[in-house]
Amino acid sequence: DAGVTQSPTHLIKTRGQQVTLRCSPKSGHDTVSWYQQALGQGPQFIFQYYEEEERQRGNFPDRFSGHQFPNYSSELNVNALLLGDSALYLCASSLAAASSYNSPLHFGNGTRLTVT
Amino acid sequence: AQSVTQPDIHITVSEGASLELRCNYSYGATPYLFWYVQSPGQGLQLLLKYFSGDTLVQGIKGFEAEFKRSQSSFNLRKPSVHWSDAAEYFCAVGAEATSGTYKYIFGTGTRLKVLA
Fold first, then answer.
1. Cβ count near B19 (within 10 Å)
2. Which of A88, A110, A85 lies closest to A37 in space, CA to CA?
3. Are strands B10-14 and B110-115 parallel, antiparallel or unpaired?
4. For residue range A63-92, what is the model confidence (pLDDT) as tens digits?
5. Is A99 on the interface with B (CB under 8 A)?
């Protein structure tokens, strides 16, 4: 049973560039959430996708956008990269029909993004 | 506002000693509470969860946590720490949205060091 997989594992970009991160949810899950974890901090909620639509959004600028595909996989896009976007980006999956207790988030190992 | 506070940034214990990691939350409704562990370079692994019922919950790897509504706390404990427990520990509250989706609000984490 495959867990949450993310690609790539590491990425180095230059300020102003654009980046796309990818996520495949755990088998059986239909909802994907993205979190940003800066060094020494806890994960911060970016947004959540279900049925190919953004359902909730955290306090992140419009430079952060996403997409969910019919197979439930998801992409996170960040435009006009800033140095402050350097972080570990975590994807988590869950089942929409269940509460957060009955379907707690399953996390991938993340993509480490470095912006220079 | 919803928030999670982990007052201890770093904790060092000797192998075999007992452990308690503190977590306080602020949430208007009945909280869904979680503890996750993160090893270096890895994603987050769920240790245990709480919603209702018995206020003492058991998790994986010998961890337990006690929910105290009067203190808005959900402290994590382990009777005897193993060297492999060295990691970062995150407390989270699951904030349910009206659409049936939810997001997690994480604390800033406690880094555990275990002395041999």
1. 17
2. A88
3. parallel
4. 999 999 999 999 999 999 999 999 999 999
5. yes
Chain B CB contacts of A92 below 8 Å: 44, 104
**Can you list the residues of chain B whose pLDDT is less than 70?**
97-100
> Token pair of A84, please?
């402050």
Give the pLDDT confidence score for residue B99 in this predicted structure.
Answer: 63
> Residue A46: enclosing H or E segment and its boundaries?
strand A44-50
Q: What mean pLDDT do residues A25-46 have?
A: 94
Closest CA to A21 of A94, A110, A85: A110
> CB distance A100–B96 less than 8 Å?
yes
What is the rounded average pLDDT for all residues in chain A?
94
Structure-derived torsion over alpha carbons of residues A20, A100, B99, A51, reported in degrees to the nearest 10? 40
List, in sequence order, every beta strand (DSSP E) within B15-55: 19-21, 24-26, 32-38, 44-50
